[in-house]
Amino acid sequence: MGTLSVPTLLLHLLFIMRRTCALQDSIRQVNTEFARTLYQKLTEGEEYRNIVISPVGVTVALELLQLGAKGNTFTQLENALGYTVNDSQVQHVLRSMYGDLTNSTHTPAVQLACGLFVDSSIQLSPRFSEDTTVWLNGSLQRVNFSNPNETAALINKWVGTKSRGEMKDFMSRPTASPSLTQIAVISSMYFKSTWQNPFSLSETQHLPFTKADGSVIKVPMMYQILAVNYGQIKTGGNQRFIVIELGYLEHAVSMLIIIPSERKKPISSVEPHITAHTLSTWTNIMRRMKIEVFLPKFKVQNTFNLKTVLTTLGITDLFSPTKADFSGISEQEKLFVSEAIQEAKIEVTEDGTEAAAATAMVLLKRSRALAFKADRPFFFLLRQANTGRIIFMGRVMDPLE
């Protein structure tokens, strides 16, 4: 076989790079649509509650299961995700995306972990065991589901270790019958912010925040004047929103904060517009501007049983004792998933750490700069800067909740 000439080799490499970029963009789009649908399903009937979910935490769990799924179980996972992890090029793109996200040199502390807890009586396929241990931040744990208290303790210890002690008592005990439990999928995601431009503790004051029901509370409101990406958005349906983007150190992650322009418009008017297309459009519309930013300190933590919501997304077979096909995990056992749980937590403070002491109240500086005031319910999402992939998304209805 002849050696490729330099121009031919460069063209070949350029083709590979373009295909990789196109594939990465395609994965980002399907991930965003999956995130949107997941968010809509999880927030149904929760109009007044603070919410945070980690779509990437759910997709990594489904990708892990896809490694051992066969038949219609595999097809349902492929349809929901929009891709197959058995494709080597998809694997390459995903490894790159997750690697950038959890790189320990980045200042934002992103802790993503996905654990597959399998009953110790199950004989696993050597291939699956190997794939699991090298897949992203996956972890294969053998447990004894016949002892639910012991299993819950092991899962809590695992989650605590992966979250650096930030998540405790993740699971009181498995919810399914111990005699039926064979596999539990646990996805844990934690993020603690470190701003590119920290807010000054001395500028934080207790200011009014108007809740969805019209009541007004006083909340710790951070403040600073800085240059941010800012946009006033008008949709085809004449909806108007204000969007700002705040960056974190090393520019690895950024936070978008969105509020309706009209104070009386509910935050629910924003949420249906969160699509891959609109996010791309809004990002292009935004301009760098120096503005006043008023943002409440907040901490949101949610735990979701994903079983119900994934079923509504067409992922049904893997939860069925009679239909699930995980012969790629074990050929000797008829396996199905009995638990699928995610816990997500986000904490936003002045500089990324909890304030150790109270500071004196001071008057805010007056400025002619444009002001962005998150003094009413707002929607937020954290995105990976280089891919646009959504790490967290949620809303704050009450910063004191």
- How many whole angstroms does the radius of gyration measure? 23 Å
Number of strands: 14
The helix content is 25-40%
* CATH class descriptor name of the largest domain: Alpha Beta
Termini gap: 67 Å
> Please, how many domains?
2
Shape: globular
Report the portion of residues in β strands: 25-35%
- How do the SSEs run, as a string of H and E? HEHHHEHEHEEEEEHEEHEEEE
CATH topology of the largest domain: Antithrombin, Chain I, domain 2
InterPro entries: Serpin_CS (IPR023795), Serpin_dom (IPR023796), Serpin_fam (IPR000215), Serpin_sf (IPR036186), Serpin_sf_1 (IPR042178), Serpin_sf_2 (IPR042185)
Keywords: Signal
GO molecular function, one term: serine-type endopeptidase inhibitor activity
Family: Belongs to the serpin family.
Describe what you observe in this structure.
This protein is of the alpha+beta class and about 400 residues long. The chain folds into 2 domains: about 220 residues, Antithrombin, subunit I, domain 2 (Antithrombin, Chain I, domain 2), CATH 3.30.497.10; about 140 residues, Roll (Alpha-1-antitrypsin, domain 1), CATH 2.30.39.10. About 30% of the residues lie in helices and about 30% in strands. Strands 1, 5, 6, 7, 8, 9, 12, 13 and 14 form a 9-stranded mixed sheet that branches. Strands 3-2-4-11-10 form a 5-stranded mixed sheet, sandwiched between helices. Strand 7 and strand 8 form a beta hairpin. Helix 1 packs across helix 4 and helix 2 runs antiparallel to helix 3. The longest helix has about 40 residues. The radius of gyration is 23 Å and the shape is globular. It starts with 5 loop residues before the first helix and ends in a 5-residue tail after the last strand. About 5% of the residues have low confidence.
